[in-house]
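REQUEST FORM: STRUCTURE PREDICTION
Request ID: SP-0412
Submitted by: Lab K.M.
Chain count: 1
Length (residues): 193
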Amino acid sequence: MTDQTPGTYGTQRKAAARNRVAIIEAAHELFAADPLVPLNDVAKRAGVGAGTLYRHFPTRQDLILAAYEHDIERLTTTADDVLARHSSAKAAFIEWFETLSAYIRIKHGLGDALHSAAAQNVISDSWAPTTAAVKKLVDACVAEGTIAPGHDPADIIMLMSFLWRVANDDEGAAQGRRLIAAVFSGLQAPPPA
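STATUS: Completed
RESULT:
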């Protein structure tokens, strides 16, 4: 039996946490390029062995859900940063939604793994923080005058969902820009009663 002091245990926990984050980051990058990437490639990119990957994520679905959850958590905390980076709240709003759509396009590429009950829980759990982030962006656009007051952030998320349905190429990007312009034209009017 190995003698473990409290310090050793703490060091092991920190290493395990670092490994978990490294695996999720590697999965994010590799799933974006190829949703069917072998998990051994994810382990290699993360700098861990396959056993370490499977200790943290026993199934492919576990890793897919963790990567998706990590991406959405990271994105929902960036609304203030995106607003600070842009002189226009509208530009920040567009950048933020384009990033969200990229995450969701990856999610759609992962197919059946995101149709389970566990996946629906992860997706449902992300709704409140996503709506809160969108509210910050909408409030900034209202203050700027590019969106009329009174629009519900949840409605705007549903409206902007076209972004993750356009093709992931130059033609889709052009279509997305045209649709965003149409959305902002509509949002300049107050919402219907």
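NOTES: The chain has a mean pLDDT of 86.
Reviewed by: T.R.
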